[in-house]
Amino acid sequence: MNRVAAPVREDCDGAIVAAVSVTALKARAGLDALTRDVLPDLPTTTETISREPGWRP
């Protein structure tokens, strides 16, 4: 299995309270594929989730 992940932060102090991860079997998506196809969008996604309760970078 291969996995990539990014943190989700809370509102006031930016502490990491969760993470979003994408996992794939090596036979379906190698680490290179996850890094190329999924990882670039993951920080944007987790930043959007983090902003919902009020976190600001």
How are the elements arranged and paired?
Blueprint: E1 2-9, E2 16-24, H1 31-37, H2 42-51
Antiparallel strand pairs: 1-2
Describe this structure in words.
With about 55 residues, this protein is an alpha+beta fold. About 30% of the residues lie in helices and about 30% in strands. The chain is built from two helices and two strands, in the order ββαα. It has a two-stranded antiparallel ribbon with strand order 1-2. β1 and β2 (about 15-25) form a beta hairpin.
List keywords for this structure.
57 residues; alpha+beta; two-stranded antiparallel sheet; 2 strands; elongated
Write a concise synopsis of the structure shown:
With 57 residues, the chain is of the alpha+beta class. The protein contains 2 helices and 2 strands.
Average pLDDT over all residues: 92
Q: What does the radius of gyration come to? A: 13 Å
Which H/E pattern describes the elements?
EEHH
Largest sheet: 2 strands, antiparallel
Widest sheet: strand ordering: 1-2
Q: Which descriptor suits the 3D outline? A: elongated
Note the beta-strand portion. Answer: 25-35%
Number of helices: 2
Record field, number of beta strands: 2
Helix vs. strand class:
alpha+beta
Helical content class: 25-40%
Ranges with pLDDT <50 over ≥5 residues?
A: none
- What's the N-to-C terminus distance? 32 Å
